[in-house]
Amino acid sequence: MGRRLDYKDHRRELDENRYVYAVVSRRARGLSIGVNLNPDKACNFDCPYCQVDRTTPGGPTKVEVPDLAAELEDLLRRAAADLWTTPPFDTVAPELRRVADVAFAGDGEPTTPPEFPAAARAAREARDRLAPGIPLRLLTNATLLHKDRVRAALAEFDELWCKLDAGTEAYFHVVDGTRLPFQRILDNLLLVARERPIVIQSLFLALDGIGPSDAEIGAWVRRLGEIVARGGSIDHVQVYTVARTPSDPRCGPLDAARLEAIAASARDAGFTAAVYA
């Protein structure tokens, strides 16, 4: 049986490509053309809910930007022609048969490789030539947004989707699996939000059957408020949960009612928030 493209299949695989893949995204609401700058699976987070299997080795660390650009150009050209008649794209639900974005995401933190700025420029050039109406997005954990080389490349992107999964230091370390200080994330979110509106993407999960407490959600909402109070701009907040098999079997999804309650807390604080169950 061939591959079926739907929300539950986010494998970074397409033909013989190394960097460019395609998935059906519940948050983008259509086909997302992914750019994976981390085929080596390098990431400075180790989120228990991540679907990437880091027990098996990844690919080369160096990003070959010309190869990446060629792969992206090929898929964008196909998208303008007969994409939906060829496998696996012919399995996409009819209502989702649109290219929703080009998104830097993948098997790690996309701002990590030194080639990130050159890759961003190459993707922007390809998108501008071949699909100018499709947004170019960066999905990031915000850990490196203070670096000059990263900040200089942010202008290539139409939208920045930035992770904020917690409201407290302790919970941040649990759900994002890193020793990096939580304050770095908060400082970096404020840094970029003062320059342009950002999207906050927040994944909430059940760990051993237990989700985040009301106190944790309250702290998370206060963090959002602090960004705005200090001069930042948040376009909207995405509230979602585990949709695919996580690397840690202790992780599971929250139910839709709990996600709606979390989003309602953000709305009560004045934010636009959407749920993706």
Describe this structure in words.
There is one protein chain. With 277 residues, this protein is α/β, with parallel strands linked by helices. Strands 1-2-3-4-5-6-8-10 form an eight-stranded mixed sheet. The protein has a two-stranded antiparallel sheet with strand order 7-9. Helix 2 links the parallel strand 3 and strand 4. The two termini are 27 Å apart.
Oligomer: single chain
Order of secondary-structure elements: EEHEHEHEHHEEHEEHE
What is the makeup of the main sheet?
8 strands, mixed
Poorly predicted segments? none
Helix/strand structural class: alpha/beta
Query: What is the gyration radius calculated from CA atoms?
Result: 18 Å
CA-based shape: globular
Gist?
The chain has helices at residues 65-79, 116-130, 148-153, 169-176, 182-193, 214-229, 256-268; strands at 20-25, 30-36, 99-105, 136-140, 159-163, 198-203, 205-207, 234-240, 251-253, 273-276.
Defining traits:
277 residues; 8-stranded mixed β-sheet; 7 helices
Element layout with pairings:
Blueprint: E1 20-25, E2 30-36, H1 65-79, E3 99-105, H2 116-130, E4 136-140, H3 148-153, E5 159-163, H4 169-176, H5 182-193, E6 198-203, E7 205-207, H6 214-229, E8 234-240, E9 251-253, H7 256-268, E10 273-276
Helix pairs in contact: 1-2
